[in-house]
Task: structure prediction
Amino acid sequence: MLGVGFATAALVIVLSVFNGIGGLLRSLYGAFDPPLKVVLVKGKSFEFNQTAASKIRALNGVEVLTEVIEDFVYLRNRTNSGSADMVVTMKAVSDDFTRQHPMDRYITEGEFILQRDSFPCAIIGAGVRNTLSVNVTADVFPMQIFYVRAGTSGGLDATSMYSSRQIMPCGVFMIEKAFDENYILAPLSLGESLLNYSGKRTSLEIKPKKDADVDALIASVKAIMGNDFAVLTDAEQHKDLYRLLKLEKVFTFLALALLVVVATINIFFSLMMLVIDKRKDISILRSVGAGAKLVHRIFLTEALLVSGYGTVAGLLVGVLICYLQQTVGLVGMGMENAVVANYPVSMQWGDLALILLFNLLVTLVVSWYPARRAASTFDPQLL
Result:
């Protein structure tokens, strides 16, 4: 009973941690990536159609439509010891980006503004800030952004191979390592001029209304944009990551389920010993008229009681530990700059039902032979 209870509690806790990590990643990616993203099926950029954009904005389920230009750029920052530079992904966004992604909770330094006194501002990731030694509160020199022009070749004038602009660092965000170390946010106008994307966009980001029918909205957007475009949901934008989390959860469940199997095998041997020990009691029951089915049910019920009590106790202990982790925080992340202070957990009724059914099924399979053996002890026809 203790073995089954321990394995069950471990399953509840570990599966809840996987659920919590998945939910945390969705919330973090949701702070930077949109619920719906319109991109080309083939190609990098497309001509921005104001008429199509107006039709999308007019749809009942659309709350915000953000225009995006995204590409790799070379970023350089002037420091006291010289300069530091790195390749980053610049995400140039329209002004309504803040309506779609409320970034205030993720800004660790400075403020979220894309323009100050008619000068473009950049919101940079914490990793980019560290690499380039940027101090948004003290730096008076703007950063330089370089972009290699497509289709250019070497010549006497090297400056003809690239375009450059200046931008002032005004804020630092900290969301997730993949974003913090690679991304900067910039105004859409700077992206158009630097990348020579006048009238072009790389994607459109859509924030649906809370009561919107997402499937119907996706169909409407596809009808407006045409077959050359795809509308990606949050799960489709990060399908590889979410698929990996699901696979890890499945294999972890199978690994910990072996503990349940081992515990129920102990029930098997206990029942076999019980059949030998209770031979006299079984013969008395048979002599007063008890049938083989009754004896079979007695031993099967014994196994189910042992496994059932252990499973219920394990579920209660696992749920209690997860609840305390959610409310009190029993185990911390162990990092000062962690996004959350404690390991995230999220209990789901489907996981609890799966564990309960799995334990029941394994117990029935393992205890069937000993119960049958007990019923056939004094009935040679059942051997």
User: Anything to note?
Assistant: The first helix runs from residue 2 to 30. The chain has two domains: 2-25+241-382, 34-237. Residues 34-237 form one domain.
